[in-house]
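Sanity check

After download, print the first record. It should look like this:
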Amino acid sequence: MASKLLRAVVLGPPGSGKGTVCERIARSFGLQHLSSGQFLRESLGGGGEVGVLAKQYLEQGLLVPDHVITRVMMTELEKRREQHWLLDGFPRTLGQAKALDKICELDLVISLNIPFETLKDRLSARWVHPASGRVYNMDFNPPHIQGVDDLTGEPLVQREDDKPEAVAARLRKYKDAAKPVIELYKSRGILHSFSGTETNKIWPYVYTLLSSKIPPVLSDEEN
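Expected structure tokens:
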């Protein structure tokens, strides 16, 4: 039985369509979509202590470490104690999952299992607008004008770790870090895995699962 306030997480490797699934869940069920990437971008712009710390790592081309991301997310979640929410991009490691345990009990964890070749193709075709985090895919979600963000007209970039030669290592790294997190939630009986190569085919099953926990505000067909 879900608690009165639904606490959910979507896990999935880079390129799994996690952001799209989260947006649809948020729209269909009235949950707040909390993206770790978005909060990190906001903290970089905010000039606070954590943002300054994160910026130092990024400027050196390093990944922002666990403890910094955890501080960003804990601060944001503390502000939302009375809201339904859906986490996207957090927790990615066992350390982050244990930090999350200290402030809330999760009701539901969705894990997206997408074949390696599909992920590789999606990531290699992915371009982003750095300031907003908007993502385009040249195969199925291209910008109106090639190389340019639809809303601002600013140039798009391909992240270094989306370039074909970096993708395999990035996916391996994700898998190694995520495995104990997935095992933890599986052992608690709250993990639900969905496999496939197309988000539109996975979505109806995700919608049905969420509908059993919380009343939808939009029907499946309205998505």
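If your output differs, re-run the checksum step. Summary of this record's structure: The longest strand covers residues 108-113.
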